[in-house]
Amino acid sequence: MVDLTSTEFYNEVLSLAFDAVIIIIAAYMLAKILSFILIRFSNQFGHARIAVRMIVPILNILIYSTAILLIVRQIVFLGTIELVAFSGLFGAAIGFGLKDVFANIIGGVIIAFEKPFRIGDRITMGEHYGEVAEIGMLDTRIVTPNDDYVTIPNYKIITQSVSSANSGLTEMMIVIDIYIDHSADIDRAIELFRDAVVTSRHVYISDHCFYTILTENQLNAVRLRARAYVWDLRDEFECEAEISRRTKRAFQKEGILPPRYYVPGEMPEAS
Amino acid sequence: MTGDSADSSESINHAPRTVFRNEFAEIEEVINAYRSQKRENVAIIGLPYSGKSTLISALHDAYANDTYRVEYGSRITRKRELLDYRSNKPIFLMDGCQYLFSRNIGGFSVLDDFLDEVATSSSLFITTWNLYAWNYLRRVREVERIFPKTILLPPLSDREMRACILKEYTDAELQFIGGVEVELPSFVRIEWSDLHLPFKNEPLKVPVPKFSIDRLAFRRRHREETLSDEELVFRKITMMAEGNPGVGKAIWKRSFDYPTVNLKDYHPIRINDPLVRKDAFILGVIAMTGATSREYLEEVSALEYDINPILYRLQTLGVITAREDVYQICPEAVLGVHDLLRRLRIIWE
Fold first, then answer.
1. What is the C-alpha to C-alpha distance for residues A54 and A120, in angstroms, rounded to an integer?
2. Distance from chain centroid for Cα B261
3. Is A147 in the same domain as A225?
4. What total of structural domains would you count in chain A?
5. Quick check: ipTM above 0.90?
6. Nearest CA in chain B to A40
7. Do A85 and A204 have their domain in common?
């Protein structure tokens, strides 16, 4: 058993603990300040902002890894035998107590380097959909459309499927459905709907970002479906709402009726 | 709309063979091919104030007997107006075709009729389009299929810029040019930027040094070359205007105060404040159209937002001018607006 006098205790253990606390605080502050600066200035880069923000988690991992190494170096000097013994103990600790923590850290490393999603992406993980606000060492935080802040452990990236709506790009595909009556003039409706899509202030069209208008006959209505790209995924809902509103106004003006309920077998003739 | 008009809002009033010689020759080839039964409609594309009308004027002067010129100066909303161009001449020169559509629901009907007419006609159509409008219509109407020959107007050289600017002066007035006093621009200047700090609502104004590589290169070139003051002035103006004749003329007018040309104090209009999407969108519509009426902008907004605060803000920033409820991009702001709209992807490529 180690027998420490109070003087030795103060000189050795408290000094090490103090150093460790200072290193952790310094690493935390450095990570926060750099993250803040990068996220704040990423907006200056326009549609390249997501690429800039992606540096944040990698930077966090580097800062915290360096901090841990510094602390370990302060506490122990490892020779070969000590290293083997330490590894065994470390493995056991992971196996018994820190399994989830290390799974989260590994998940964080995978997210940072494999980039299944990035900060700013719109993702669906499990039952949650939202914009990735932060990728931490242990968890990922997303903001849902209802402004809920959801914290998801990083290990779920290994165990669950994750879908990213924009995959690191600023533009994102949106789908807008409009329903019209079976008796409505479908050609005119498609024309107006297409105009509403291509004249929207949020829509972006390029070689890779194209738009389509699809129709589908349903029992009580004809569904018009537009697929188009919103220029900035932050405007996803505003874009959908704007196109829907403008289309509805145009339909009302042109007398294109919304669907009505029909008894099967009594469908009206198309106009 | 005017037919056979010699005037042009974008005209830089210059002899045709001095500027855009290569482009003129390309179109001559197209006309010769048309005479040999090969019809290839032409789209001349350029930024605002880039001299599209000048090229059309030059073509009209050179082929007066075979061409009928139509110039659109404001939005065409009815098909009857469009079809006024009917003529017996085999070649149509149509200037300002971006006025044939509007960016709102139902705003493409005139353009669709026009494209249909061009596709089925046996005449040759040589048209000019605003670059932003052309890129937009490529995506939504595939106009390049109807106008397979596209000519993008290049920037003017120093000499071309000089000829273009001095065209408006008589020889007597130009005597002073040899003795102009040239003040070279500094390659570093201080700009005040807003710094947003956490837990503080009001932004903090901080001085930020801005370095201009162009200006540094210009100073170095000036040391290396022995240029006359006059050459130096026009080289600098061309560089600042990025070869755009309309912008070059605007710089000249701002900087010239007899007998001095002071380029040191000229700062191009750059939009440092981030514009909200609707402001930038309206700015893009004005840049795409040219002379844009308030009525049209209200149609574009489609009851989604109030247009007045947006126009007020854009005017306050100095990027648009208003005359009798018609709005246009300031020539000095064209390059700044171009950068901004491209960054925000309001304009497409």
1. 9
2. 24
3. no
4. 2
5. no
6. B196
7. no
Contact residues for B149 (Cβ-Cβ < 8 A; gap 6+): B26, B30, B40, B41, B42, B43
Whether residues A158 and A185 fall in one domain? no
Does residue A36 sit at the B interface (CB-CB below 8 Å)?
yes
| Domain B277-343, CATH among 3.40.710.10, 1.10.287.70, 3.40.50.300, 1.10.10.10 | 1.10.10.10
Query: Residue B155: which residues within 8 A CB-CB, separation 6 or more?
Result: B238, B242, B243, B244
Question: Closest Cα to residue A161, out of A152, A172, A170?
Answer: A152
pTM for this entry: 0.73
Nearest CA to B184 out of B97, B111, B255 is that of B255
Distance from CA of B104 to the nearest CA of A (A): 6
Domain that holds residue A53: 6-164
Q: Could you identify the residue written with the tokens 């950068």?
A: B339
Express each pLDDT in A73-115 by its tens digit.
Answer: 777 666 677 777 777 777 776 667 667 777 887 887 788 777 7
The fold adopted by the segment(s) B2-152 is Rossmann fold (3.40.50)
pLDDT tens per residue across span A214-269:
999 988 899 999 999 998 888 889 999 999 999 999 999 999 999 987 766 666 65
B198 contacts in A (CB within 8 Å)? 36
- B114 vs A235: CA distance, rounded Å: 34
